[in-house]
Specification:
The protein is mainly β. The chain contains no helices and eleven strands. Strands 2, 4, 5, 6, 9, 10 and 11 form a seven-stranded mixed beta sheet that branches. It has a four-stranded antiparallel beta sheet with strand order 1-3-8-7, with no helix packed on it. It is globular and about 45 Å long.
Length: 115
């Protein structure tokens, strides 16, 4: 069994910052790439950022320069540092780790950015 738990969401004013965390636990032999997705009301879930097992990162254009994804392999944790938040960043953020070549999902954490 693999458990994925996100935390760190909340309500913040535009221009503020939040740091999301995602802990992967349970029967994990190999954690590969780690991704953050988000789903805004009425929209499909979309990729925000990813980090490979080697540390290479990629971001959707709308968050480049504002968001930073990082990982701590010893803690089996991935982070998403979000700065200069905008109202359009409001969404439920989901962690998607690839564990033993399978996709897993957390329950999501709500991020609300007020104007």
């Amino acid at each position: 069994q693999v458990q994925v738990v996100e935390s760190g969401g909340g309500l913040v004013q535009a221009g503020g910052s939040l740091r999301l965390s995602c802990v992967v636990s349970g029967s994990t032999f190999s954690i590969g790439a780690l991704y953050w997705y988000r789903q805004a009301p009425g929209k499909q879930r979309a990729l925000v950022a990813g980090i490979s097992s080697g540390g290479s990162t990629n971001y959707v254009d709308s968050v480049k320069g504002r968001f930073t994804i990082s990982r701590d392999n010893a803690k089996k944790t991935v982070y998403l540092q979000m700065n200069s938040l905008k109202t359009e960043d409001t969404a439920v953020y989901y962690c998607n780790p690839v564990v033993d070549f399978r996709d897993y999902w957390g329950q999501g954490t709500q991020v609300t950015v007020s104007s």
